[in-house]
Amino acid sequence: MKSNFERILITAALPYANGFLHLGHLAGAYLPADIYARYQRLKKRNVLFLCGSDEHGVAITVSAEKEKTTPVKIIDRYHPANKTTFEEFGMSFDNYSRTSLPLHHENAKEFFKEFHHHHILIDKKEQQLYCLKDKMFLADRYVEGTCPKCKSAQARGDQCENCGTWLDQTELIEPKCKLCGSTPVVKETTHWYFPLGRYQERLEKYIDERNKRDGWKENVLRYCEGWFKDGLKDRAVTRDLDWGVRVPVKGYEDKVIYVWFDAVLGYISSAKEWAANIGRPEEWRTYWQNNDSKYVAFIGKDNVVFHCIVFPAMLMAWNDSNPDNFVLPENVPANEFLNFEGQKFSKSRGWGIDVQDFLKFFPADMLRYALAVNLPETRDSDFYLKDFQARINNELADIAGNFINRTIAFIDKNYDGKVPDKGEFHKLDEEIIEIVKKAPAAIGSLFEHYSFREGLMETMNLSRAANKYFNDSEPWKTLKTDPKRCSTTLYIAVQLVRSLAILLEPVVPGTSKRIWSLLNLDTTMKDEGWDSASEFRIEEGHKLSKPEILINKIEDKKIDEILKFLEGGNNKTEGQMPPLKPVITINDFQKIDLRVGRIIEAEKVPKSTKLVKLQVEIGNEKRQVVAGIAHHYKPEDLTGKLVVIVANLQPAKLMGYESQGMILAASTETGELTLVGLQSDISTGSAVK
């Protein structure tokens, strides 16, 4: 970290208050942010860690309409629930705010008025989709259609989640109103726009400078490059909705500020709320408007454009006309996605598990450890319950927990719980001392560069080295044969316990606190500091607390319990069946050409855990189809199967392989896929009607 930064501002993406947090949310943004914040505090740096609920936009109103209630009731249900879940998980936010607060509304309006006053915003008459049946303009998620770029049939009115393209809703192919299923008409309305393209050159320079200075992730850089290559365009900052921050411009009071504009300003609002709560209302400026602040924004990859391009451009626009300049993100370490048992988390399918439910079965530190060791830092990763069990039992319990327990128990039994004399150090002692001296700097360097998974692995390597030292020293033998040697071994071992308590704290704070309690020290880990983990500070004769088991192993029956919970549908949303898509006409259906095909070859796609490359015979023709069925079928079991294929689908490339069609499959409530099968006497190429 650059030495001229005197304080660190950390934000974690604002979660929508329209549902409960699931494990993917934690792995994407929140756990990495908390590890970083806790580490920086142990480094005795001045940290402000902010988050809050995103409570505006169509995601909230759609949830309200589905439940036949109001947006206020939706956010008032999920905001406190998620806040409590974060607390139970051990998140160390300095402030957890919400964008429905009057303070935030005023903050968002202030930015809007500032941009309007300096003629940054542009008002445009535009064509927008309007539903004649519901008598409303269809903003964002109220409309769904086919993406003009990748041809995904479930693109939203603002973005295609399949390919990441930011869309104008009129670009959608065959759009449908999600409320009633009817085809909307195009109608004129007026909106204010932010000239994002005007800032492209500055944004490219900004990202290049920050990357050279702080090392941005390749996935983030590539994503930004894609946006710059396409060219940034003006983006609407208002919407025809009832729910949100009202536009503070005369004649536009019936519109609201677009959620993408107001949500990112929630970080500033959260800082203002924090400052007010501590009785120093201007203190927020020392973090947001001071060049010696380092601002790091933790997000998931689906939020890259807003935090690397949109928000910095907004701050640049403010800074151009104000003496009190805001700091721009020094880094935006976005993680990829976490899958659950090989499948994407899906609210509509009820697939996955909410954090609040998971914590009913297991302590927070177990979840924190298992997620941290499997963070999707460079690519998507998977969370499997059996792997979770193995990680806790074989690593956290058997390596770290075992060493700590055997050290404290040995001293309790043989030295009346008092730290033995250090005596003289031998070669074996000097080797482990050298390892622990280097550990805080090595692990800290990884944390500084946002490599939290590797940093945790290095911490566990220290635990392994400590166990090896204990075993190689054989204190159970030297206790009788060489008491001075035994005394030295245990003196060093208890110092290693203290070091591990500090180095593990960012990942498993509850466990570290219990280790510290076992050491019976008067100071706190924060008092001692991260760098002190390289030192031996526990004095000879110091009285330790009674030993206790730190980490209980997870028994098979506990995994069976949570599996039963999942299979019982307790984690499912109401209805269980995926929601029906908008009504189509017979003419729409007749556009689809379904044919009988026979799989004649099948092989896994290299570097993919999900995709299988198929060669499919359709009459006299052979087609290559890439299907995401590797978790459900082995390639050798697919050869010879008769399947139904969408034969007139536009070809698409997946992992570099062209797919010339789509195989039909049925999905169960748990996400299990079964290929739609046919009788063996049907000829390939036959039409399916």
Question: What would you say this structure looks like, in words?
Answer:
The chain is of the alpha+beta class and 689 residues long. Among the domains are: 7-99 and 262-335, HUPs (Rossmann fold, 3-Layer(aba) Sandwich), CATH 3.40.50.620; 592-688, OB fold (Dihydrolipoamide Acetyltransferase, E2P) (Beta Barrel). The chain is 41% helix and 17% strand. It contains 22 helices and 25 strands. The strands form 8 sheets. Strands 16, 17, 18, 19, 22 and 25 form a 6-stranded antiparallel beta sheet that branches. Strand 23 and strand 24 (673-675) form a beta hairpin. It starts with 6 loop residues before the first strand and ends with a strand.
Describe, in short, the structure shown.
By secondary structure, this protein is of the alpha+beta class.
Class of secondary structure makeup: alpha+beta
Largest sheet: 6 strands, antiparallel
Number of helices: 22
Low-confidence segments, ≥5 residues, pLDDT <50?
571-579
Helix content: 40-55%
CATH class of the domain at 7-99 and 262-335: Alpha Beta
Average pLDDT reading: 91
What's the end-to-end separation, in Å? Answer: 64 Å
